[in-house]
Amino acid sequence: MLTISRLAAYAGVTVRAVRHYHRIGLLPEPERDRSGYRTYGAAAVVRLIRIRTLADAGVPLARVQELLDASPDEFAEGVRVIDKELRAEIRRLRQTRGRLARLAAGEHLALPRSVVDYLDRLRGLGVEERYIELERDAWILIAAQVPHQIDAVIAKKHEELGDPDTVRLYTLLSQALDRSPDDPLISEIADLLERLMIRAFAAGEMGPDPFDDPFVDLLDTTMAEAAPGAERLLAILEERGWRGWTRIERVRGDRPGTEPPPS
Prior knowledge:
The chain is mainly α. The protein is 63% helix and 2% strand. The chain is built from 12 helices and 2 strands; from the N terminus they run H-H-H-H-H-H-H-H-H-H-H-H-E-E. A two-stranded antiparallel ribbon has the order 1-2.
């Protein structure tokens, strides 16, 4: 008869593992002898080796019991099911690894591929990194609100980058982050923005958006707090009849060439 340490040694496991198998019911616990020790026979060694073999093969301990007590056909079916589950888990882990690898770029955190590509295009146009970081954070918020529409929104943004005025706007905005409210660059940005707004208004591109008012206020507030001259820029535009940043509204058309088209 064998002591627990000798049993563990013969089966190639630790004494701690043997005691764990006792606790979860995989290995029957023998009665103690007159000296108070538990002793084991060859059957215990065989069962313990089978337990270890199944565990080493990746069979979850919760499934080992059913395989130990299964008929040959049941055993084969049980192994097939476990193999299917393991293959599914492998696919999940590969997908997780892929997501982790993409997160290494930083911007992939909470952003779809389309937005990351758009930000990379802005970099290629010479837009400063500090401004791109502001864009990134805004797109994270937007993508979370309209996940099924974000690719279409970004496609439209790519179209807009075909306009030299839009590219120029991005360049000026990135240069204006540290400018004071009375810097002439703020007025230059306002002129350029107004020109783009007039075109969009005339083309009927200022339709409804999918955002609620609190979300629009959140984005506008974030923009206004991003740079010293941001509030001055919005004030200039409102003086000229344009309100908002995320949701731009035409409130009047009293400047030459800015009158709304007749209804």
